[in-house]
Every structure is written in structure tokens, then in C-alpha cells.
Amino acid sequence: MMKNKADEEDYWNSSKFKAFTFDDEDDEFSRLKESKRAVNSIRPLVEEDDDEDEVEKVSWSGEPVGSISWSVNETAASNQRTDREPAFPKINTDTTSISKSHSGYSLSALFKGKTRGGTFQSVTDTLSDSSVRLYAPELRKPKSEYKDYVSDWSPEETVQRMQQGKTVSLEKFRSLQDKLLLLDYAVSAHDGNVITAVLIYLKRTLSKEVLFRELTDRQTALRHFIHYLTESKDQRLLLELLRALGRTEDMALLQYKEHLGIADENKRRDFLKSCLSLPFSPEDSAHVEDHYTLLERQIIIEATDGQAARGGKQEIFQKFPRKASILNMPLITTLYYCCFYHYTESEGTYSSPLNIRQTFKLSEKQFFVTALAARAKLKAWPDVDALFTSRNWLGFSRKKSPLSFQRVVDVLHKNSAPTQVLQDYVILVDDAELRITLAQKHKCHDIVINTYRDLKDRQQLLGYRAKMARGSAEEKKINELLNNSQIRWKN
Question: What values do phi and psi take at 440, rounded to 5?
Fold first, then answer.
């Protein structure tokens, strides 16, 4: 049944409910509801059966309710509050006025809403009573205080706050345009941490196709993203990114790098074999092929030598036991091993030093230095001498070295070569001063004496004679040279 206009007005005027309004949420009615909720939530904590009549009531000023001063103050306060919003009452901080003996209201009396006569009144009536008006504290913070967490910061402002180390939420940036603006501002800020944080968010919220496409035009962000994926070991996504960018060589090298995590040598060899078909550059392709060939050869040599060492069939393995496995060793280390244990083998065997030199196209100097160190370690001086001997087309032999003879002497000396061996190479040093220095250091006296003779330096020869032992062969030789009238000394 439809009500007429008079009935509707009578209903709203007589009802205890008020009509809905669009007033500001901070009006008196909103605060009253919040205060009522606060009071109801606290009621179970303070509800007791104390005798309220034993405690007299006081106003906010501390005066007993019903006293003359209280009535005057309340009357004046009521007149002042008629036309304006009530302000929070000023509380007297004098401790003597709020002592226990003069307390007018207990908490239980306030929250239970008892009247002076002991009867209960409603919470609404109690709160609306001018003599005992209650004020609940503001339960919510102003919206401005939540701005750091939930406000609508622009992409530029968000990046600035990230640089300052403040908490921000990137979830609000949902459109592709906002996300790319966020990334561009992060790149412009030149802050790697901010760029990485934004990229992690984009990685999570964008499809791979869209992300890869946008990073193509942003090389700085792309480099950061590749570095992030490398550090986080996200090989799968990194491979997809390189493939999408058309960087096939980088993709191949990344896949090749996975061999480092394979411990079993046979599985590693098979993996390297599968890498031969990857799109490497010509130089890298040759390197991968050599790596596979070397590991395959090392597996064969290790199995053969291990069996020979255990069986005691070869004396060299008994005299110089192997200290480590040859597997996964560098090429030069493998050559040194073969020069040490398999120097005399024919070129047709896998462990022959000459075969290794030919297969991996080692330079003359690389082979010479490695073989010299290995044979000098074994004190195989005839083999060392054979390394230097070369014959010209007339059949004459002479010593030739791709390495300076000064370095040759150093290598031989480190391997405890005797003086007789050292002097054969000291004398081949071209520079006279350097030759004399090396000869004196290694006690090659004949070389020093002969060099001073060739220089016709009589004073140096006299000085060197003083260092020789009395009656030694070196002293006699110097005396013979000094007494030789055919030598024309320059001093």
C-alpha cells in the first residue's frame, strides 16, 4: 500500500532512525557511530558489578556533579555550545583535582550508561546527554598519512621514491603504457637497482613476446635484463631472449657453457659432440671442435695409462708416479704430460707429443717450451740437446732456439741442470755483458775468462783473477792469457 506524503513525514519525524544523507563522512552522526562501536568493543572489558553509588560523579572539569561551581560551569558551557560544534573539553592536569577520592565517574559507570538513580539508559542517550557528553578518539588516520602506500603516484614519482628507498607498489601500473613509462623513467634515473626492480615486475606481468619486443628498442634495459637472467641462472628464459633477438652466436655460447656443470667425462664428451652443430662463429666452432677432440683423446690416454700404472708394466710410472688425472686438463698441460711419459712414442699414437702438435696445430714455440720443461724435469739432457740441434742444407749442425737462450738457461737452472749443461747455452747468449752476468751467476768461469779475452779487457781479467782460488785451473788460465804477448790489450 502506498503511503501519502503526510504519513511519510510522520514516519521520519517519529522514527528513531534518521534519513540517509550525503553529508561528509566526518559529521557528528559518523563520529557518533564510531564512538558507539568503540564503546561496544570495550564494554566486555570494563563491565563489572561494582556499586556505583559509592563513587560520586564528576564532570570533565573535576568538580563533583551537582555542586554549585559545576552547575555554573555547565550552564555557561551549554550556552556557548549552542551554535557551534563542541570542542574537546580541556582536562585539568592538576593531580589533586582528579585524585581517587574526588572521582565522579568510574569507567564501568560511563560504559554501562547508568543514571544517578541506578537505572540504565541507552548508549545513544548517554552520549547525547549534554552533561556527560563523551568524545571517542579518531580511529582512522587522515588519508594523507596513507599516501605513501596507496596513493596514485605517477611513474616518474614512483621511480623517485624507489631511488629514495621508500616503499612503493608497482601493482597499480596495469596498462602497457604505464609499465613502459616506468621502465623509461628508471633508465633515465641511471639507477641499476631501480631498473632491475622494474624489469622483475615486467617479467612477471608481461608476456615474453611483448617484453622481448619492447626491450629490443631499449638497449640499456636489455643489458640489465640479460645480466639479471645470467646472475639468477635463468638459462631457459635467457636462451629464449637471445633467440628472439637473433643473437644466435651468443645463444650457442650460452648452451656450450653448460658443459661446466657436467661432472662425468663421458657425458661431457657427448654433450660437446652435440654442440658441434650449434651456430658458432668460425673461430668459436674450431675451439669447440678442438675441445671435443681433446677430451676424447684424454679419456683414451687416461684409461690406458691408468691400467699401465696399476699393472706396473712401465718403469716410468713406477719411478715418477702420476700425481693427478689428465681428464679435463688444458691442451698445454696434456702436451706436457705426453712429453713427460710418452716422449719417444711414434707419431701414430694418440699420446705421441708430435701427434698432439700436428692435430691441434701448435706453434713451434709452444711445442719447444713445453717439451724443454718436461725433459729438463726428467734430467733427460740428451733430449734437451736434441731440441736445439738443427742441420742446414750443407749438413752442418748448429744450435737453434725459438726461445732466447737467456730464458733457456733460466729453465735449465730451475730444473737443477749441472754447470756443464748450462755453459753450453750461456755461451750462446749474444750480448757480451749479459753473457758475463749469466756466466758469473752460474759459475761458468771459462766463459767469463774467454769473454774478457775477446774484449781485450786486461783490467777486468785482473779483477776476476782476484776472485779465483789460489792455484786453481781458472787462475792459471788467466795468468797464461796475461803473459801472452800476442794479445793486444786495450787497457
Answer: -65, -40
Amino acid, res. 402:
P
Give the tens place of pLDDT for each residue, 366-403: 999 999 999 999 999 999 999 998 766 666 677 889 99
State the residue for C-alpha cell 626491450. Answer: 215
Which is it for strands 397-399 and 389-391: parallel, antiparallel or unpaired? antiparallel
Q: How far apart are CA 378 and CA 315, in angstroms?
A: 13
The one-letter amino acid at 115: T
8 Å CB contact between 226 and 239: no
CA 380 to chain centre: 50
Q: How far is CA 65 from the centre of its chain?
A: 72
Q: Which helix (H) or strand (E) holds 390?
A: strand 389-391
Q: What share of the chain is helix, strand, coil (3-state, %, to 5)?
A: 60, 0, 35
Per-residue pLDDT of 316-363, as tens digits, reads 999 999 988 999 999 999 999 999 999 999 988 999 999 999 999 999
Closest CA relative to residue 65, chosen from 96, 109, 121: 109
Set of cell numbers at residue 116 = 544517578
Angstrom distance (rounded) from CA 372 to CA 379:
10
Count CB-CB contacts under 10 A for residue 88: 8
Is the Cβ–Cβ distance between 455 and 432 less than 8 Å? yes
Cell, residue 359: 692435430
CA distances, 436 to each of 440, 456, 480 (Å): 6, 14, 20
Angle at alpha carbon of residue 362, lines to 356 and 363, rounded to 5°:
145
Amino acid at 417: A
Give this prediction's pTM. 0.60
CA distance 178 to 322: 65
Distance from C-alpha of 307 to C-alpha of 374, rounded to nearest angstrom: 22
Q: What's the rounded Cα separation, in Å, for the pair 464 and 268?
A: 63
Q: Report in angstroms the alpha-carbon separations of 307 from 317, 326, 337, 395.
A: 11, 14, 16, 44
Q: Closest Cα to residue 113, out of 99, 134, 93?
A: 134
DSSP 242: H
CA 374 and chain centroid, separation: 41
